């Protein structure tokens, strides 16, 4: 997946090059404005939906995690399985930190002045803990897929050999 914006006038330029290239400033026509307004509604609704779904998923996971805080081995099993399923979703660990940070930002206002630096530290630690286990699960799944692929390609005879 990629975003092909190069050559579209959206690639970064310095203030100096903007002057020397002697280019007319971009002009927003009424058509542009109408197109932007119409598409923004769709973008906004869709992104809000994605955000809400993601937040609900994370909330339900946190609810289960909180219920397992005095049975850490059960919490570990849950987080490991989640990491394994995230390999299947193609959602790599490098992004898990953002989810924790977003979650903390979203819940902070709920607790108003009951939110303290110690509480923030506690939530951060919970996310670090579960996302580290998720990462283990992700890597386990990746390894098991890789060894499965290797084994099945060894078992399947190469067509060139069987043709002799
Ligand atoms: C702390 C990090 C995260 C947590 C706690 C979390 C939690 C969850 C949960 C509870 C589910 C429900 C399905 C299941 O249990 O397997 C889920 C599904 C999913 N998550 Fe995450 N997630 C996290 C990070 C991410 C990230 C970073 C991405 C994308 C880069 C992602 C993409 C997905 C996708 C694609 C699904 C499956 C959607 C579907 O087909 O229903 N997740 N996640």
Structure description:
The protein has helices spanning 15-20, 30-67, 72-88, 96-111, 117-155, 159-162. The protein has 164 residues and is an all-alpha fold. It has a single domain, classed as Globin-like (Orthogonal Bundle), CATH 1.10.490. Helix 3 (72-88) packs across helix 5 (117-155) and helix 4 (96-111) packs antiparallel against helix 5. The protein is flat. The two termini are 42 Å apart. The structure holds protoporphyrin IX containing FE.
Q: How many E-type strands? A: 0
Principal-axis shape equals flat
What CATH architecture would you give? Orthogonal Bundle
Classify the beta-strand content into a percent band.
under 5%
First-last Cα distance: 42 Å
Helix content, binned percent? over 70%
CATH class: Mainly Alpha
Low-confidence stretches: 1-8, 160-164
Q: Give the radius of gyration.
A: 24 Å
Number of helices: 6
Query: What's the order of the H and E elements?
Result: HHHHHH
What class do helices, strands and sheet pairing give? mainly alpha
- What ligands are attached or bound here? protoporphyrin IX containing FE
CATH topology: Globin-like
Features:
binds protoporphyrin IX containing FE, 164 residues, 0% strand, 6 helices, disordered N terminus
Chart the SSEs and their pairings.
Blueprint (H helix, E strand, L loop, with lengths): L14 H6 L9 H38 L4 H17 L7 H16 L5 H39 L3 H4 L2
Helix pairs in contact: 3-5, 4-5
Bound molecules: protoporphyrin IX containing FE.
Protoporphyrin IX containing FE (HEM) binds next to helix 2, helix 3 and helix 4.
